[in-house]
């Protein structure tokens, strides 16, 4: 993937990994449109020189409005990154968890599908382009305190596989970015010393995107233990270790 002359829309790039990737694409020479819900953060990024568009991936009509605005100003758009996501803990012993489940699935899985659906006809019409979906190491090695997050990201993985198969022959490549825990703030780094440094993670991702052909899955070294746990025979042991974190749920303290 030549990252020096792309026109990239990143849904969910007003903070964290999405923002860092937006800056990396821009630094490489690509035009970047940043999408997000928070207008104050979009305004700050506009001050940096980014094109911006408000988008709430849980609102189908809003996604279509964002698409129309992007294609009007950037008709040469060729790359879509579906970065939007939420991560919430849930205690499945408490029926009240279902609100968090709905929000997680609606944002992470259905939100991804809404964005992909909105831009697929444009990319097919161009005969070329790239869709980058974003899952998680948790899609392959669940973190029990976040069951709907794991399910949503596993769903995005399966959807990405099907999307790639259905778009075969159209000129559109589909790749899946699979982040491990990444420290996007100093507080996150303090709470999880094992989380990857954001800058180092982004450097590894951009290096992998430059590969020819573009990998089907962008797997940084820090996520390999998650991705291949079943293959390597470590899955049960690692899930048991991660289940110890269930003690952090308020009702179990």
From the helix content, strand content and strand pairing, which structural class follows?
A: alpha/beta
- Helix coverage percent: 40-55%
Low-confidence stretches: none
Shape: globular
The rounded distance between the terminal residues' Cα atoms is 48 Å
The largest sheet has its strands arranged as 3-2-1-4-5-6-9
- How many runs of DSSP E, i.e. beta strands? 9
Q: SSE order, as H and E?
A: EHEHEHEHEHEEHEHEHHH
**Approximately how much beta-strand content do the residues carry?**
5-15%
Q: Any idea what the radius of gyration is? A: 18 Å
Task: Give a description of the structure.
Strand 2, helix 2 and strand 3 form a beta-alpha-beta unit. This protein has 253 residues and is an alpha/beta fold. The model has no long low-confidence stretch (mean pLDDT 96). It is globular. The strands form two sheets. Strands 3-2-1-4-5-6-9 form a seven-stranded parallel β-sheet, sandwiched between helices. The chain has a two-stranded parallel sheet with strand order 7-8. It is built from ten helices and nine strands.
Give me some keywords for this one:
single chain, 253 residues, alpha/beta, 10 helices, 15% strand, globular
Write the layout of secondary structure elements.
Blueprint: E1 7-11, H1 16-28, E2 31-36, H2 39-47, E3 51-54, H3 60-73, E4 79-82, H4 98-126, E5 129-134, H5 147-166, E6 172-177, E7 182-183, H6 186-191, E8 196-197, H7 198-209, E9 217-218, H8 224-227, H9 229-232, H10 235-243
Parallel strand pairs: 1-2, 1-4, 2-3, 4-5, 5-6, 6-9, 7-8
Helix pairs in contact: 1-7, 3-4, 4-5
